[in-house]
Specification:
Largest sheet: none
CATH architecture: Orthogonal Bundle
CATH superfamily: ABC transporter involved in vitamin B12 uptake, BtuC
Distance between the termini: 54 Å
Low-confidence stretches: none
Mean pLDDT: 82
Strand content: under 5%
Radius of gyration: 27 Å
Structural class: mainly alpha
Number of strands: 0
CATH topology: ABC transporter involved in vitamin B12 uptake, BtuC
CATH class: Mainly Alpha
Number of helices: 14
């Protein structure tokens, strides 16, 4: 504000100058209020558009789930279910509904576990099946089968989760011990570590004549999913909801220890919570349906390319994308050699491997 000599300036001039200052201040406040309102309107429109797109995606997923109920060897249709022809109603309730629920729960949970693992490790090319976590869970389950074959399913899950957590800690320890010169180094180290653990597991399974049992854990398959054999997956469904509730804390932890501590978060506690959720999810999915390779890798990366790295905003899309991807693969696996069925783990291994290579080449080209 310029200095004004009020002793030599007429009163009318002083009042006019004051009016201009007041008008300028009011105009500035008006501009700020207009910008704030415009920003609020844009945020509301973005939020409304986000909810609309989520609603459309959820509707498409539900339609695909209904289609899945009527795909299979047995004649299950609206007519046969309504009139209970050939026990169609019993087949629907005891097999088709549990299978579809298992597909949706396992797919969404495995995809969310992948994005959490990527956030904690700070690398886009990792997920439980590429860093030895899934193989560690399989080793724990095999050890339980050898030592305590009569252990209940819940106990096997606990041992598998503990083994998966130990495998995660081993992977992180290996990463700290070697220089990381490229983002590609991290998944390569994880794949090699998973190969070593898998080789040990296969050797033990061969020695104790448990290769067929090991195969049911290695290759994902929903053909044996019936009522009474999939309910553990509701645990990982609850973990998906819990992950959404702590998404902001996981995002901060993903920025590094210094950032988390400076914002008042307990870095070790949040890190352990995230790793525990990943380990339990991996163990439960392996126990119930077997391995779903590359699911936690490709879905989070595709969502990140489309929506960015905001975990709270992208997490519903990751869950829907994982469930939808597994559901589509499951339907294709039932139809490609009908009336026989291809294990979904084999189909996802081929599709996921191709997409994984595309993502690696895309990242390499961007770095180069």
């Amino acid at each position: 504000m310029p200095d004004v000599d009020v002793t030599s300036t007429p009163v009318s001039s002083i009042l006019a100058l004051g009016g201009r200052w007041a008008g300028g201040a009011a105009e500035s406040r008006g501009r700020r209020a207009t910008l704030a309102c415009a920003s609020t309107v844009r945020q509301m429109r973005a939020f409304t558009g986000q909810r609309t797109r989520l609603g459309i995606a959820l509707s498409v997923l539900l339609i695909a789930a209904v289609v899945s109920l009527f795909v299979g060897v047995s004649d299950v249709s609206f007519h046969t279910v309504w009139h209970d022809v050939g026990h169609a109603r019993s087949i629907l309730l005891a097999s088709r509904l549990p299978r579809t629920a298992a597909v949706l729960l396992a797919g969404s949970a495995a995809a969310v576990a992948g994005v959490v693992m990527q956030m904690l490790v700070r690398n886009r090319f990792v997920e439980p099946s590429t860093v030895g976590i899934t193989e560690s869970a399989q080793l724990g389950l095999l050890a339980t089968t050898i030592v305590a074959p009569a252990m209940p399913l819940a106990g096997q899950m606990a041992v598998g989760a503990a083994a998966a957590l130990l495998g995660t800690c081993l992977f992180l320890a290996v990463l700290r011990a070697i220089p990381i010169r490229s983002n590609v180094t991290v998944p390569l180290v994880g794949i090699m570590l998973g190969g070593i653990i898998g080789a040990v597991t296969a050797f033990l399974a061969f020695q104790f004549d448990l290769m067929q049992t090991l195969g049911s854990w290695v290759t994902g398959d929903f053909s044996n999913t019936i009522e009474g054999r999939y309910e553990l997956l509701w645990i990982v469904g609850a973990f998906v909801v819990a992950t959404y509730l702590v998404a902001d804390r996981l995002t901060v932890v993903g920025l590094g220890r210094d950032m988390a501590v400076s914002l008042g978060l307990s870095y070790r506690s949040i890190l352990f919570l995230g790793l525990m959720m990943v380990a339990v999810t991996s163990a439960v999915v392996v126990v119930v349906v077997g391995g779903l390779p590359f699911l936690g890798l490709i879905v989070p990366n595709v969502v990140s390319l489309l929506m960015g790295d905001n975990l709270r905003r992208s997490l519903p899309w990751v869950a829907l994308g994982g469930a939808g991807f597994v559901l589509v693969c499951d339907i294709i696996a039932r139809l490609v050699v009908f009336p026989f069925e291809v294990p979904i783990g084999a189909l996802m291994g081929v599709v996921g491997g191709v997409i994984f290579l595309i993502l690696l080449l895309r990242k390499g080209a961007r770095v180069g």
